[in-house]
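Researcher: Next entry in the queue.
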Amino acid sequence: MASHFNELNMNEIKELDVNLLEMMLSHPNLIVDIEDFLILELYKTNHSVSCLFQYVTLNSMNKFIDVFDFTDFNRLIWNSLNKRNQCEIKYPHITPNRHRLKH
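Model: Structure for this entry, 103 residues:
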């Protein structure tokens, strides 16, 4: 089922048990392009899925911060955030003259 996760629609996913979702998200063959979005959407209606945040990369930090309730925080989610925070941040190349004021 984990390898066909992308074929499920959001309504079907919302009906799945949290333990099953956790097994699927931790499966090595899982291919989900939008896992951050998926878990945020599930979390908006059901905070009991907060444990699933440990399996995502959290590329959408702003959305996560807006939606996530601190009382649902746990050690595994903290570890996931730490991993994400240790990733190299790539800044866009800025040309030196680009932001100069004209006199």
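Model: Helices lie at 10-14, 18-25, 35-45, 61-67, 75-85.
Researcher: Noted, moving on.
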